[in-house]
Automatic annotation (TrEMBL), chains A, B:
InterPro entries: ATPase_NBD, ROK, ROK_cs, ROK_glcA. The lineage of its organism: Bacteria, Bacillati, Bacillota, Bacilli, Bacillales. This is Glucokinase. Keywords: ATP-binding, Kinase, Nucleotide-binding, Transferase. Belongs to the ROK (NagC/XylR) family.
Length: 318, 318
């Protein structure tokens, strides 16, 4: 019995798993994220959770080989030091050192979007391809870029911020949480798609989405895809628009990075072909022919397990 | 005496150099590119040129350690096999194997834009930074992306095609040699800038560029920068436009790659601050604050030597 420990720290829960050397989950579970006292109890919570799970499974002390962990916020990946993680409460927190002290395991830290990308590369849609673009279309738009099998960090850990490529440069671009306007995230996230729909109703109040909006008081990205399935014109034009911006951004990145696979994850990716077909069309329009030929689109397959499996991959690399 | 051999094959001349283990050029020279018989004499030309130079310098047989070489066209970097190099004449040519046979040296092959980027990283403007974006603004727009000290190839050798990011998506985009329209290259290359100026004269015939155009029968990018220096409105608006598109493309790439340095080379980069100042302004507008803070712009310093020095770097890596 030799297992890696994969950990994925979120603002509400911490996901944990014991993972075999080949990347199969032995067991997975969650604990709440304890944010009191600036998050300083989190490391001992994780250590206790791991220890009691190990005992529960009857595994020996040396069954656990190493730990890989993803966390949100600004992280120094080399030292595992967290400068700031707003939705946890950490500020200047030596996460790696603390965890190593508490668990006795060697710990590798990266950000949450990156370990999800590594998980998909290793055991998900990435299919062990070594040049991979992972894009999460959720509340925001997150990204992880894998080059030669390694996650890209860049000079100060900011690499992979695909959601903040600028899609709309004129004054019509919506404000983004990052402080800029017109970011891809303002258009291609679930939030962005819902916003476009609500704005679109002003001009096309005869859309079926109007009924949903009046009933629910709001709209979701899923409402838009559902309406598009029924040939609603407004919904179809919004998806067209989203795929134009997303396809252009991904083609531009692909012309630079020449990835083998683009993995789409997050809630919006569940729309499947309703998203993928128009997206591939726009991608083909803007990518160089050889780049387009070399690149497949896939929907993420690991769901919420991507992070803990990617954490195990990190642990494997040491 | 231990030297690397750096070779940079172009459509007209082949540049060669003996380079110390530290990257200093011992001697450099050129030979013509012999394109007869589909370029099949080039490898023996290179071998003879190296051998006679070695003898001329009185160096022993084992002074030459290894060779690194850049060539244009579609290359399999792992095997040094050239699928097709239009302006040389090679088709399915085993460049690395042939050269190793002819010279007895171990040979590493990459494309010409990439070895120039490696040269700038090692001994030029890149200053040994390990995360680097190199952009050559010449007749076309070329690129080389260096990540963790390694040149990015992507899944089929197409990585770094920065000139083919799409800048103009509507029907106003000019045709590009790649078959697409509106590529960055159609705007930010020397050719693109000249085209914008000639088109601009139709609407602003009172520009000083009109006089130059009538005298010379054409315009160059240098004419545009010269006129901008004298506050010509058309010239200034073209540079504004070029910097908007180039700044947006580079900021989008930087949000994904988080480079430490962006090196600008090629004829257009000689405009210096006239280009750099408006470019940095647009870059700042579209890059995430931490990405912009982490990134410096520099003008390439090695000129035509970048390729042979980058070749030597390749040889050093083996």
């Amino acid at each position: 019995m030799k297992w890696f420990v994969g950990v994925d720290i979120g603002g509400t829960t911490i996901k944990l798993a014991f993972v075999t050397l080949e990347g199969d989950i032995v067991t997975k579970w969650e604990i709440p994220t304890n944010k009191v006292d600036g998050g300083k109890h989190i490391t001992s919570d994780i250590a206790k959770a791991i220890e009691s799970k190990r005992v529960e499974l009857g595994a020996t002390n040396d069954a656990l080989v190493a730990m890989g962990l993803g966390a949100p916020g600004f992280i120094n990946m080399a030292t595992g030091f967290i400068y700031h993680a707003v939705n946890i409460g950490w500020k200047n927190f030596a996460l790696k050192d603390e965890l190593e002290k508490e668990t006795g395991l060697s710990v590798t830290v990266d950000n949450d979007a990156n370990i999800a990308a590594l998980g998909e590369m290793w055991r998900g849609a990435g299919d062990e391809a070594k040049n991979l673009l992972c894009v999460t279309l959720g509340t925001g738009v997150g990204g992880g870029i894998i080059v030669n099998g390694q996650i890209l960090h860049g000079v100060n850990g900011m690499a992979g911020e695909i959601g903040h490529l600028t899609s709309i440069t004129d004054e019509s671009g919506a404000s983004c949480n990052c402080g800029k306007t017109g970011c891809l995230e303002t258009v291609a996230s679930a939030t962005g798609i819902a916003r476009l729909a609500i704005e679109g109703l002003k001009k096309q109040p005869n859309s079926n989405l109007q009924t949903v909006f009046e009933r629910e008081g709001t709209l979701t990205a899923k409402d838009v895809f559902d309406a598009a399935k029924e040939e609603d014109e407004l919904a179809k034009s919004i998806i067209e628009d989203v795929c134009f911006h997303l396809g252009l951004a991904l083609a531009n990145l692909a012309n630079a990075l020449n990835p083998e696979i683009i993995v789409l994850g997050g809630g919006v990716s569940k729309a499947g072909d309703l998203l993928l077909n128009p997206l591939k069309e726009q991608f083909k329009r803007f990518a160089l022919p050889r780049v387009e030929e070399g690149c497949k689109f896939k929907v993420a397959t690991l769901g919420n397990d991507a992070g803990v499996i990617g954490g195990a991959w990190l642990a494997k690399q040491g």
